[in-house]
Design brief:
The chain is mainly α. It has 13 helices and no strands.
């Protein structure tokens, strides 16, 4: 009887000849663009003296997001992500597993902070009076965020006993509960997706009560819903996570020849695009989307200036069209204001969207 061939050991030296850096690059680019959008928003709010509770709440959300981006970039650059699994050293796998454990705590904290900022923004816009009943719905959702953070900050502590064995590739298998990790992550991603879906549809009811043309109401709804559009990314991430787990026992023949194939899940061969990219896109979409209402006026002003420059360079007809549109827009704002329902709640709700600054001052960044 022929003896089985011995398993090949992991490499002892790092070799990045076949490494693909695109995952790390995408995480860094998304992190920079998203951070600039949030800082732009905060700068405008500070400049117009319209800083609200949602702006204060987004500061810790941004800091947590920066921490997430730094971790994602470091892990993707130093953990062998983007290389064939058999070319990854034990040290690189150790960094890889540290990233998994770190993400188990940082993900719920980051997403919770972002949702709190979104809910406080909804309160700023859609709570016209202290007695408005919608206020209690927002408070209930805020309380649920606290429960979410506490629960999903405790569960990762039981993934591995002792925890430090979780990032020891040669010992991890004896102490790490892969199925516990799988079920807690599915629960985490499902809960996040459910909360994001609630925030996605939350603005529809109050916005549809505004006395505006249907096209305008749809536009305003889309603008407010952008911050909660992360539910789409969360749904994709959950689906991929569940599908990939089906490959847990399906080890490619090439990888099966190596000792580490008995210690490292085979799904790691696509981990960059199935975990790190969706995990970076989700909070990025949320932060950019929740900043867009504050940036809307600046974006419109910039587009008008570009239209003027284009007109002055020879495209006068295009420029006149932009001016006509701008004039019609100002006129329509006046007409819409005058056509409001006499109901006090409707008036205050509309004024919160159009003005809504502190002490009754006009907050142009929300217009």
């Amino acid at each position: 009887m022929a003896s089985s061939q011995p398993l090949l050991p992991p490499p002892s030296e790092i070799n990045d000849t076949h490494k693909v850096h695109s995952i790390a690059a995408w995480c860094i680019v998304l992190g920079v663009v998203t951070s600039l959008c949030v800082l732009w928003r905060l700068g405008l709010r500070f400049q117009t003296r319209s800083f609200g509770a949602d702006d204060y709440a987004i500061v810790p959300a941004l800091l947590l997001y920066l921490g997430w981006t730094a971790m994602a970039a470091y892990v993707n650059l130093h953990a062998g992500v983007g290389k064939p699994l058999w070319e990854i050293t034990v040290g690189e796998f150790s960094v890889w597993f540290k990233g998994i454990i770190g993400s188990a705590w940082l993900y719920p904290a980051t997403t919770c902070a972002i949702r709190i900022s979104i809910l406080l923004f909804y309160q700023r816009i859609f709570v016209p009076t202290p007695k408005a009943r919608i206020k209690y719905v927002i408070w209930f959702l805020l309380a649920l965020q606290a429960v979410y953070l506490v629960v999903y900050s405790i569960l990762p502590a039981f993934i591995c006993k002792p925890l430090n064995k979780a990032w020891q590739p040669l010992e991890r298998q004896q102490y790490f509960d892969d199925w516990y990790y799988y079920y807690t992550q599915v629960a985490l991603f499902s809960t996040s997706m459910a909360f994001d879906a609630i925030l996605l549809v939350f603005p529809l009811y109050p916005v549809m009560k505004l006395q505006l043309p249907l096209k305008k109401r749809i536009g305003v709804s889309i603008l407010f819903m952008m911050g909660a559009a992360a539910s789409i990314a969360a749904a994709y991430k959950l689906a991929i996570f569940v599908i990939e787990m089906e490959r847990y026992t399906k080890i490619p023949p090439e990888w099966l020849r190596y000792e580490m194939s008995r210690r490292v899940p085979p799904q790691f061969d696509t981990y960059g695009r199935t975990f790190w990219i969706p995990s970076q896109v989700e909070p990025s979409v949320a932060l950019i989307g929740t900043s867009l209402p504050a940036l809307r006026q600046s974006i419109l002003s910039a587009s008008q200036r570009l239209s003027t420059l284009w007109s002055s360079s020879g495209s006068s007809s295009f420029g006149n069209l932009g001016k006509a549109f701008s004039g019609r827009k100002r006129s329509s704002k006046t007409d819409e204001h005058e056509s409001l329902s006499s109901d006090d709640d409707h008036v205050r709700l509309r004024m919160n969207y159009v003005g809504g600054g502190k002490n009754g001052t006009r907050d142009n960044n929300l217009v």
